[in-house]
Amino acid sequence: MLPVLVATGITLLLLQPPVDGELFTALADMEELLETEAVLITNLDSYVQAQEEKLMQLRRKVHEYRREHTEAARDVSAYLSNPVNAFLLTKRLTTDWRYVENLMTYEVGKEFLENVTSFRSVLKFPSDEDLNGAAVALMRLQDTYNLDTASLARGMLNGVQYSTKLSAGDCFELGRQSYLNGDYYHTVLWMREAMDRLTSEVNRTATKEDVLEYLAFSTFKQGNIQTALSMTEELLELVPDHERAVSNKAYYEKELQKEAQQKILRGDDGSEEVPIDTTTKIQKEATAHVYDTSERKLYEQLCRGEQQPPIELRSQLVCRYTTNTSPFLRIGPLKLEEAYLRPYIVIYHEVMSDREIERIKQYARPRFRRATVQNYKTGELEFANYRISKSAWLKDAEDEMIRTISRRVEDMTGLTMETAEELQVVNYGIGGHYEPHFDFARREERNAFKSLGTGNRIATVLFYMSDVTQGGATVFPSLHLALWPRKGTAAFWFNLHASGRGDYATRHAACPVLTGTKWVSNKWIHERGQEFRRPCGLQLDHSEEEF
């Protein structure tokens, strides 16, 4: 029985917030769940074998009793006249039967349940929040990459078959998790899919009554009262005494009556059923920083690879070897690929080896914590749903290899690492992403980086430590630019103009990982100490209109 909340004359399913859990935020942690599952499978298999052994012993007793009883039934007097048979009959109904009763009442599962309890102290188990987070991640992937619900339920992602099909029960759970989040749009999508799959399932994994209950109410919440009423009536045909359905049916009927009355005398002259004008559209004028297409839409299009900078700009980009005036790079120049000219965004190729990547992962894994963002008002770090990943911070002093990477960043950028932040290592979880944001602090964020005393973030170096099968691009919506992860490469850009003003065109995002795993690390470089390495010019290097 689902909990209920009575409000405004309608019976509502109670939204229960999930408890804390963070395994879904990093695939590195999710890998350990497979170890947990392997242990549980072994434990469950042992339990099944014990149950089968118990049943086998009971079957042997049944066979033994039936054999003796059949023999006695042929000639009761002759059977009982034999003192041995009389003894055995008495024994079967006393000590033997007590053994059978004890065997029947013996709880085979108790020992194995105790095992599971002990496992929880040493193995990682997902929480309700992890389940909810994994479901939300699937919804995010579905929306960002325009994935069809039926195809996703078949285990197909962008036309590629990756996994087994979802059952009706699986689809129902995805819908239920969406419902718990107040996401009625996805609740309807997945409950409809659950209903479609129920029709073809031999061994049903969900009930039509449960699906209809969630589907009807979510349809109502989307404003379709008539359809919600029809679904509720269908539910009442299956379960006539369903308390919530009875209450909701009366409410829906009352709401439909109100709608019918509101339609009357809509026109100024008293005429009925005057159509509403839906043809007039107000088009806002586009400017350099306001687009007809919303940032969200641009972001999703870039994640899908549907947008790119104009050919006029791309034709000016070049690839070359560079030394950046570094003496060390004169004997080993870096491979540089220009990605954008203004702001200047480049990609360095083959700047982190596989050995370095594995060493960094080794250091980072035990320290992973859910990634945070800085509250622009307080300057405090906090969790946010728009950043789903886990991160760890590595100091130069910990390992010569980490110090080598910092020196390499200095050679790549020409900037000092004396005031740079520690190397941040990030692993993205299921549908892991980071929505559009700035790396630098804006004027109103007065408390940002205050404790560091090193000024604003002047530049970013982002190392890609893994290839990603699908998704996971770094996108700059206002530039229509997407950088796709390639193991061993690094992206570099200045967050600030030479004047120290923030470059708002560097607003960027990390697209959700559709398939595969995404590892990155980054160095945020600060202003302090860069005065002679990147000096201010005599003239502004940006337009005042940008601010």
Question: What does this entry look like structurally?
Answer:
Belongs to the P4HA family. Its EC number is 1.14.11.2. Its cofactor is L-ascorbate. It is found in: Endoplasmic reticulum lumen. Strand 17 (474-476) and strand 18 form a beta hairpin. The chain has helices at residues 27-74, 76-81, 83-92, 95-105, 108-119, 128-144, 149-153, 168-180, 184-198, 208-221, 225-238, 243-263, 295-303, 311-314, 354-364, 400-413; strands at residues 4-7, 10-13, 156-157, 160-161, 319-322, 334-340, 345-349, 369-370, 373-374, 381-382, 387-388, 390-394, 423-427, 433-437, 457-464, 470-471, 474-476, 481-483, 490-494, 508-510, 513-515, 519-526. The chain folds into 3 domains: 27-120; 128-259, Tetratricopeptide repeat domain (Serine Threonine Protein Phosphatase 5, Tetratricopeptide repeat, Alpha Horseshoe); 310-526, Jelly Rolls. The protein starts with a strand and ends in a 21-residue tail after the last strand. It contains 16 helices and 22 strands. Residues 1-21 and 274-292 have low confidence and may be disordered. 30% of the residues are buried. The chain is of the alpha+beta class and 547 residues long. Helix 1 runs antiparallel to helix 5, helix 10 (208-221) runs antiparallel to helix 11 and helix 11 (225-238) packs antiparallel against helix 12 (243-263). The longest helix is centred in the N-terminal third of the chain and has 48 residues, at 27-74.
